[in-house]
Amino acid sequence: MTTTITINGHFEVKQIRNVIGYLYGNEEPDRYVILGNHYDAWTYGALDPNSGTSILAEVARATMQVVNETARSLMFAAWDAEEYGLLGSTEFVEEFTELLTRRAVAYLNMDCLQGNQTIFVESVPSLQDQAILAAMKIQNPRKDQKDVNGTTVFDAWLHYMKDPRNPNLPQIPTPSGGSDQKSFMEYLGVPSLSFSWMDMDKHKTYPLYHTLYETPFLSEHLMDVDNFAIHRATAQFWIELAVRMADAPTVPYSLHTLAMKLESEYIPDLATSITSLNMTYTKDGYDQLLQMATSCAVSALMITLFCSNRPSTTDYEIIECMSPGCSVLIALVERIPVWELTGHLRREDG
Question: Which of 216, 247, 278 is the last residue of a domain?
Fold first, then answer.
């Protein structure tokens, strides 16, 4: 039996347009913290991407009204043609490669809401501490979550996504390539983070994803039923994180967390692949890489000994649970601020 299918397609060349806005910094206006979302949709797109697009627009509006200025510039980017292969953000990255490589502090992506249970963050290790601190500042929009011990976004995040390797922290995987952070992270190496909201005990995304049922009714009556409380909390988290990156005296990269992740997770995982090759000379390279990561973690803490500003106990507790291998050094400092573990990057041109 033979079945014949006839497909009629219409091909058309169209121009795409990215929409970019700025809030210029007063100290380093040529350094950028970039907030990005795509605004093209397969169908009506009430959730993907309009939940994220509406949040980005409101964040930009509110920031212009409330935040007079930050040390570094905030860039608000609405990308076109994401659904066709991340075209808008990729073209932007390729056109401004040199400038972004030298000037981009971080790229913070929010594609769309995918659930309503808890925030879900994918981040490179150097931004993870700041994401945690930002989540601690935002009230949990789900007042009905009686099983959550605490009232913040962080509390719900920790409850539903506990890291199996460290139960004091939520699990934060590295970003995947499914949205506009891909080109910034993989092509340029810009520290990148992408976040959404998900239902961790159900589907990874909502069942009506990319269908004709993505209407305002879905968003208002099924996804975010409490007067768009999750939209509001998402906006608050996004700008809290952005201002932290834009206004800190030194760029708050968590180099210590990066080194610890390399040492305790990424390099051991890599070893599994390397050892399967059964090549004797790979062991020396693996051992050298592991030693470099360990030395970097220790160096970051040693720098802290001379630069601590006696921060809050909360920040110290984060560092303590992130640094099980460096407890002796931690004991030498009464309190260690997360942002001091960045290696104190200097604000130098370039």
Answer: 247
Look at strands 166-170 and 28-38 and give their pairing: unpaired
Q: What is the pLDDT of residues 175-224, one digit of tens each?
A: 988 999 999 999 999 999 999 999 988 777 888 999 999 999 999 999 99
Q: Tokens representing 234?
A: 């998402």
pLDDT at 341 over 80: no
> Are 227 and 221 a contacting pair, CB within 8 Å?
no
Domain of 332 in residue numbering reads as 255-342
Residue at which a domain ends, from 247, 265, 288:
247
Q: Which residues contact 10 (CB under 8 A, 6 or more apart)?
A: none
pLDDT score recorded for residue 303: 61
User: How many Cα neighbours within 13 Å face the side chain of 323?
Assistant: 31
What does pTM read for this prediction? 0.83
CATH number, residue 68: 3.40.630.10
Q: Tokens 């890599």, residue?
A: 270
Catalytic site residue 95? no
H helices present in the chain, as ranges: 50-66, 87-95, 97-103, 125-136, 153-160, 181-182, 216-217, 229-247, 255-261, 267-276, 282-307, 313-322, 327-331
Domains of the chain: total? 2
310 and 236 part of one domain: no
Say yes or no: 288 and 153 in one domain.
no
- Four-point Cα dihedral 94, 98, 104, 109, nearest 10: 10
- Give me the catalytic one of 12, 28, 58, 82: 82
